[in-house]
Amino acid sequence: MKLSTAIFQILLGPLALAGAVPKGESKITYGGYKAFRVATHNNPAAIKEKISKLSAVTYNIDNREHLDVAVPPQEIAAFEALKLEASVLHEDLGADIAKEGTVAAYEGVSAQAVPSLTWFNAYHAYADHVTFFSDLQAAFSNQSELVTAGTSFEGRTIFGIHLWGSGGKGSKPAVYYHGTVHAREWISTKVVEYIAYNLLTQYGTNTTVKAILDKYDFYILPVVNPDGFVYTQTTNRLWRKNRQTRSGQSCVGTDINRNWPYKWELTNGASTNACDETYKGLAAGDSPENKGLVAFTLGLKNSKGIKLFIDWHSYGQYILFPYGYDCSLKPANYALQSSLAAGTAARIKLSYGTSFTYGPSCSTLYATTGDSVDYLDSVGLAQYAWTIELRPTGSGTGGFVLPAAQILPTAIEQWEGQKYLLAAA
Ligand SMILES: [Zn+2]
């Protein structure tokens, strides 16, 4: 760790370095849990009702065609007795989480050295992501700087990197990425890191990359839900929300992607129950993370504007554009967005044959309110505001966890997709 990293970690606060399981909570291993994909035939509520007596964990709550659930060992027989139309995603979820890789240590690099690509062979602890970005920035200090977008509920800084090309710092419209807003979606952080890494390391040698970075300033926030991310590593791999507590509520956590202050007040796109995975909070934009992200977003809007925003998620293999809050609405530039999404999906597929479905998020997946994409489109005035749901799709390929061996292929195919998109947009 270099001095700049040390200073940056002081900025992030003491909690950022804590790796221990929170007091009173033991780590959930999910040993013996069996995970299923249950067909819902467009009626997920009926399936949820049928399994409501079980303590099964549901995962992809945003999809109306199927519901992915992890069933504890003592309830597998009861689940199978329901005779639902289901396929197996994980025979033993705990074993697959273990296989996903013990989170690897990152030693850092000596001053101004470029971090190794081996970073993308494993998942890492939160503090190591901080170090990685600090190292990457130090190696390319003439065209990058570390940025911050406010502070999480538990006091961690929401950090990121700003990259620029020949026009100089802050001279071009923004390309703006968020990773790991949903705590368990680790692959999204790795993907935006890979894009940042390639923009910087290939700028001097690749004319396509140079043209992209000369045309846009990039703002890449790899972990916008740091408290949740740390919690997935200390305690519960499948945690989704932030770690915000609220007086009078026993359940922890607000869904940051249902708390953005745009169409937040509408019903049916989020939950008002604090115990639910899509809990929207008590007021629009009232989570500490959303406050920081809103301020950062408005800063970009008010400087050179936002060309492209992508909120990176997993899983399902979707490219989604506005709107989430109303299934009958399409963005004004719908034809253009569809054509760019089709082209991006086609380019992604060239690397490994991975297929992505695209379309407006509400009609393609499910209604969402207070989500980032609607906010970035309508308030942030981003020309393109997308959600990309990364690997896997689920069937036959797992779902809840993505093996470390798939980090690099997932990142490579998305880098190819972004190079197409940013040249064409
Ligand atoms: Zn997500």
UniProtKB/TrEMBL annotation:
InterPro entries: CARBOXYPEPT_ZN_1, Peptidase_M14. One of its GO terms (molecular function) is metallocarboxypeptidase activity. Residues 122-425 form the Peptidase M14 domain. One of its GO terms (cellular component) is extracellular region. Pfam families: Peptidase_M14. Residues 1-20 form the signal peptide. Gene3D superfamilies: Zn peptidases. It is found in: Secreted. Its cofactor is Zn(2+). Keywords: Hydrolase, Metal-binding, Metalloprotease, Protease, Secreted, Signal, Virulence, Zinc, Zymogen. SMART domains: Zn_pept. The active site is at 389 (proton donor/acceptor). The keyword rRNA processing does not apply. It comes from the Eukaryota. One of its GO terms (biological process) is proteolysis. Belongs to the peptidase M14 family. Extracellular metalloprotease that contributes to pathogenicity. This is Peptidase M14 domain-containing protein. It comes from Podospora appendiculata.
